[in-house]
Amino acid sequence: MKRRSSRLRRRLIAAAATLASLAGIAAWLLLRTPGWYRTAARVEPDAQVVRDEIRDAAQAFSDALMVPGDFAVHLRDQQLNGWIERRAEIYPMLDQALPPPWRRPVVRFRDGAIRLAATYRGSTADIVFSLDLGVAMQPGAIVLTADSARAGALPLPLGLLDRLLSHAIDLPPGRAWRGSPAMRGTLRDGLKIGTRAVWPNGARAYEVLNTEVRPGVLNISLRALGSAHATGSRIHSPDDDPFSDSR
Predict the structure, then answer these.
(1) Does the pLDDT at position 18 exceed 70?
(2) Helix (H, G, I), strand (E, B) or coil at 148
(3) Nearest residue to 111 (alpha-carbon basis) of 222, 219, 36, 191
């Protein structure tokens, strides 16, 4: 009887030690700040440099739309994170859109995916949450779909984020911002973003032909469609269904 009791006690102690070790590993992974996030979050460019970069990029895009034909845009995540870091000084309204518990938003381009990350300020600890979005092209749409999620370095089942990922979006052209493309769907099943839009500066219409996400850079192939008025573009019309070809 004593042997059985002693054996049972040893098993219970071993099980408790195993559970404690697993809990410790999980806590370490949860609270760990990924190296890629730490590096990206260190980017602190001068506000004036950011203003100049945004102005130059906008002007280059406007110039490209003035010439009929195809062109390409290469967006690097390091530069984009610099713009995001200075958002409070450049775009105060964008900074206010981020809920107070969240800080240090970061974007990272990976092979075929875009990683979005931010730090959540908890009462006892700060945790870095990240979400990977797969990027695919369909006729008339760019499709973003949730691929994976992490808390720190700990993988999270997407089911835990179902309420967030299943939030339905249905915006006609021009609703999200002036000249914006249509958006429809959920991040769980696929959020479709129309490939046609209008650049507000000069009301020039354009179409996204292809997107390629590579480590550190997002390559976008576009086609200038000319004046939105001259081409008879219905980009702002709620009656126009930009996803009719992708169904």
Answers:
(1) no
(2) strand
(3) 219
How far is the C-alpha of 179 from the C-alpha of 127, rounded, in Å? 36
pTM exceeds 0.85: no
Report which of 131, 127, 195, 120 is spatially closest to residue 165, judged by C-alpha positions: 131
φ, ψ of residue 51 in degrees (nearest 5): -60, -45
Which residue has better confidence, 166 or 86?
A: 166
Q: How many Å apart are CA 229 and CA 203, to the nearest integer?
A: 8
Picking from 182, 199, 193, the residue whose alpha carbon sits closest to that of residue 239 is 182
Domain ranges of the chain: 32-227
Q: Which amino acid is at 142?
A: I
**3 state SS for 105-140:** EEEEEECCEEEEEEEEECCCCEEEEEEEEEEEEECC
